[in-house]
């Protein structure tokens, strides 16, 4: 199954992508994680993306389209994939169509802006593998350490409240029009994000399997 997860920053796309992937045995492709990895390794692309990310702006379409095009060619995508954070603009969605990629379902995880701002302050991510945790809602077993790999948990640079507001603005102006784009194709399903990760997972998996 080829899936897209839509949703505001912090809506829980990455968290649900993990759940879907372990259930369906397909890879999650997070453009945000790929860009952060590139930045950590000091590649030209990563460094060029930094100034956009730090401000909460979207990275230029041609950069992310190139990333996804390369990633989808890898053999692990042949039985399906979950796109987390891509497409984020109409030109990105059109580029995906042009690649000949058939999308089965687009799941929007809907969470209000107020709840997003409150949630982001508690997020911590593993600096080694990128898995995300929450100080209240998804605590690691050992404080400050990743359950998956033992890496150190840190706060993301773009989770500062002002940057979160800029990211929400980008989302509403540039990404939200994609709901209409996919609704017209009969592919959009909306899941109301809950204040509990497991409850949201149940609703998300039910929406995918329906
Ligand atoms: P990206 O990394 O994709 O960030 P984002 O979309 O802003 O989304 P997040 O990763 O912040 O949140 P999420 O929805 O995955 O939520 P999570 O599961 O972590 O992109 C970052 C930047 O990269 C962009 O700003 C842009 O510059 C660039 N970029 C990336 N893709 C791009 C593209 N296609 N085009 C252009 N630029 C691009 O959950 C959030 C927190 O809440 C966690 O702490 C989690 O534990 C907790 N939580 C999750 N679910 C629940 C729940 N149900 N109840 C309570 N807490 C929960
Ligand atoms: Zn880890």
TrEMBL record:
Where in or outside the cell? Cytoplasm
Q: Which family does it belong to?
A: Belongs to the adenylate kinase family.
Q: Which InterPro entries match?
A: Adenyl_kin_sub, Adenylat/UMP-CMP_kin, Adenylat_kinase_CS, Adenylate_kinase_lid-dom, P-loop_NTPase
Where is AMP bound in this sequence?
Answer: 31, 36, 57-59, 85-88, 92, 156, 167
- List, alphabetically, the CDD domains matched: ADK
Any idea what this protein is called? Adenylate kinase
The residues listed in the UniProt record as binding ATP, with positions renumbered to this chain, are: 10-15, 123, 132-133, 195
Positions of Zn(2+) binding:
126, 129, 146, 149
Instruction: Write the record's keywords in alphabetical order, separated by commas.
Output: ATP-binding, Cytoplasm, Kinase, Metal-binding, Nucleotide biosynthesis, Nucleotide-binding, Transferase, Zinc
What is the protein's known function?
Catalyzes the reversible transfer of the terminal phosphate group between ATP and AMP. Plays an important role in cellular energy homeostasis and in adenine nucleotide metabolism.
Molecular function GO terms recorded: AMP kinase activity
Where does the record place the Adenylate kinase active site lid domain?
123-158
Pathways per UniProt: Purine metabolism; AMP biosynthesis via salvage pathway; AMP from ADP: step 1/1
Q: Which top-level enzyme class is recorded in the Swiss-Prot or TrEMBL entry?
A: transferase
The catalysed reaction is: AMP + ATP = 2 ADP
């Amino acid at each position: 199954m080829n899936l897209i997860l839509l949703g505001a920053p912090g809506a829980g796309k990455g968290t649900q992508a993990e759940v879907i992937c372990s259930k369906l045995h397909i890879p999650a492709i997070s453009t945000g994680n790929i860009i952060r990895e590139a930045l950590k390794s000091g590649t030209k692309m990563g460094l060029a993306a930094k100034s956009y990310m730090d401000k909460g702006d979207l990275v230029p379409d041609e950069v992310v389209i190139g990333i996804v095009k390369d990633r989808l060619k890898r053999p692990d995508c042949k039985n399906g994939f979950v796109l987390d954070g891509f497409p984020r603009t109409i030109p990105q969605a059109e580029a995906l169509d042009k690649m000949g990629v058939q999308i089965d379902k687009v799941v929007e995880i809907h969470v209000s802006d107020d709840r997003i701002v409150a949630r982001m302050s508690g997020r911590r991510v593993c600096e080694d593998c990128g898995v995300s945790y929450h100080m209240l809602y998804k605590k690691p077993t050992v404080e400050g350490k990743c359950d998956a790999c033992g890496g150190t948990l840190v706060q993301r640079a773009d989770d500062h409240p002002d940057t979160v507001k800029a990211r929400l603005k980008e989302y509403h102006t540039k990404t939200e029009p994609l709901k209409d784009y996919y609704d017209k194709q009969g592919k959009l399903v909306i899941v109301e994000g809950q204040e509990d990760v497991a409850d949201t997972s149940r609703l998300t998996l039910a929406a995918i399997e329906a």
